[in-house]
């Protein structure tokens, strides 16, 4: 017979059990009417962030950089270390997402968590987030275009891959992704579900091929092999730069946060989506990283190739199999770009809803037919294309786009986490870290600052126009524009997230 449960124990157990609030009631309590359709289940919310992180796209895009900045030891053990740090960032963001499940996500929570100058904190967070998201959509589209050209050149050797053609292919990709996001949220949700299985099945196919087909693999001790081809004499500095491979991959998991207003039981499903996306990506990514490392044959030849991972596939598996696997990689990149644009659109919608963008009334309008912010979709696509256009004549311009993506996003992540860290009256949601919340937040902020500095330091020597790291300039331009605009007009009209009234008042404004 089980022991009787005392009333005191019952009350204590109830006190610690999370309570899932009604989605609409939570939104109304934050001062917003419901304008978007809630069609995203827990899996759909997870799928957004998992697809944006996209280990296949991230690893294949940055693997060559890691081969020259640290080599196998940093590619493998750096992945483990950085993934652990990103889990701290994700856990802190997830706790905040549970407390403030809105499309405004980072900028909204920054405005609510700030003790003073709420409008300014919210303003800078929103513009960093906007710049980072647009940069991510642009960078993913351009990366897909680059790999598409690599595939075409393998299939038809007479084809000449050029920067101009890469820009044109990127424009077509952005057009198709915008059209997909223009239709119903349900279509996007279906595509994101497909993308998860594409990533997982594609991962298995690539890993199994790299394990079973090559006649030779590197010895286990190869994971301790260190390489410093950065041009810098300091090996520690070269190794630290190699950590950027993992940092490049783990961006965009705020997508689950931005989809909160379209997610069922968002106070628990949005934070769980963030954590699951990071955790599963960390494990699956390590498997893919090991498979690529042990399949390397000619290290120097692959490291100096235009697309090192593609060269590894050709050396280990032959051209035919390499082309097939390259199609999987391209598909993963296209899915990644689609999810990135979806998240980007929701951030624009929410930021405009609070009057923080030029033409805000236009961009936060919702289609009466599809219940999606269609105009915001096309703004995201147009801004992404503008960032890609300099690639027509400049190879280094695209580096700045990637830098805007990573530095902009992670600094936007850091602001609300930092504000939560110093706020003693923070009211957590159903998903929370309990007494460890501040400790986790402190580690998260420290890591973001370290990784952001790494992204802005020189990454190759000698430093020339072709190797110069334009990240500080790109970040500076964004911050200067935001600052000038803030002091010129915005500080008098933008006070942070807007409340449309009392819960009963905004409930009457619901459009669905």
TrEMBL record:
Main location: membrane
UniProt protein name: D-serine/D-alanine/glycine transporter
Membrane-spanning parts: 42-67, 73-100, 121-154, 166-189, 196-215, 235-253, 274-296, 316-339, 376-393, 399-419, 439-458, 470-488
Organism of this sequence: Streptomyces rimosus subsp. rimosus
Organism classification: Bacteria, Bacillati, Actinomycetota, Actinomycetes, Kitasatosporales
Keyword vocabulary terms for this entry: Membrane, Transmembrane, Transmembrane helix, Transport
Gene3D superfamilies associated with the record: Amino acid/polyamine transporter I
Keyword Iron attributed: no
Keyword Transferase included in the entry's annotation: no
Top-rank lineage group of the source organism: Bacteria
Pfam families: AA_permease_2
Signal sequence segment: none
């Amino acid at each position: 017979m089980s022991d009787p449960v005392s009333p005191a124990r019952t009350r204590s157990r109830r006190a610690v059990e999370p309570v899932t609030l009604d989605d609409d009631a939570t939104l109304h309590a934050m001062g917003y009417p419901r304008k978007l359709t809630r069609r995203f289940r827990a899996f759909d919310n997870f799928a957004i962030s998992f697809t944006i992180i996209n280990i296949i796209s991230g690893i294949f895009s940055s693997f060559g950089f890691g081969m020259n900045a640290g080599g196998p030891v940093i590619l493998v053990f750096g992945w483990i270390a950085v993934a652990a740090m990103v889990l701290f960032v994700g856990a802190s963001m997830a706790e905040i997402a549970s407390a403030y499940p809105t499309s405004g996500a980072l900028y909204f929570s920054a405005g609510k968590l700030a003790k003073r100058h709420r409008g300014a904190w919210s303003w800078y967070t929103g513009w960093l987030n906007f710049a980072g998201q647009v940069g991510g959509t642009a960078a993913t589209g351009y990366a897909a275009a680059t790999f598409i050209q690599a595939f075409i050149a393998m299939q038809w050797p007479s084809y000449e891959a050029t920067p101009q053609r890469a820009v044109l292919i990127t424009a077509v990709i952005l057009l198709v992704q915008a059209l997909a996001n223009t239709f119903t949220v349900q279509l996007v949700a279906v595509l994101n579900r497909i993308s998860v299985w594409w990533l997982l099945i594609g991962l298995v196919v690539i890993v199994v091929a790299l394990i079973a087909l090559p006649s030779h693999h590197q010895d286990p001790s190869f994971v301790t092999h260190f390489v410093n081809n950065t041009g810098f004499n300091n090996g520690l500095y070269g190794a630290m730069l190699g950590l950027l491979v993992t940092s490049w991959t783990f961006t965009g998991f705020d997508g689950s946060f931005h989809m909160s207003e379209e997610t069922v039981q968002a106070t628990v499903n949005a934070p769980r989506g963030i954590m699951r996306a990071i955790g599963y990506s960390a494990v699956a990514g390590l498997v893919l990283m090991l498979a690529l490392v042990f399949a390397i044959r000619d290290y120097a030849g692959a490291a100096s190739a235009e697309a090192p991972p593609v060269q590894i596939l050709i050396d280990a598996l032959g051209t035919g199999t390499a082309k097939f696997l390259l199609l999987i990689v391209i598909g993963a990149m296209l899915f990644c770009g689609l999810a990135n644009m979806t998240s980007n659109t929701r951030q624009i919608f929410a930021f405009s809803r609070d009057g923080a963008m030029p033409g805000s009334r236009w961009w936060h309008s919702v289609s009466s037919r599809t219940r999606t912010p269609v105009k915001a979709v096309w703004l995201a696509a147009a801004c992404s294309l503008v960032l890609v256009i300099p690639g027509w004549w400049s190879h280094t311009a695209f580096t700045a786009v990637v830098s805007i993506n990573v530095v902009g996003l992670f600094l936007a992540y850091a602001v609300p986490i930092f504000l939560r860290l110093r706020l003693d009256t923070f009211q957590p949601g159903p998903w929370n870290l309990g007494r460890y919340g501040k400790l986790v937040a402190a580690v998260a902020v420290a890591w973001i600052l370290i990784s952001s500095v790494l992204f802005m330091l020189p990454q190759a020597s000698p430093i020339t126009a072709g190797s110069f790291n334009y990240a500080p300039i790109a970040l500076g331009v964004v911050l200067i524009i935001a600052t000038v605009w803030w002091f010129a007009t915005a500080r008098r009209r933008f006070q942070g997230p807007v409340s449309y009234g009392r819960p009963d008042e905004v409930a009457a404004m619901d459009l669905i």
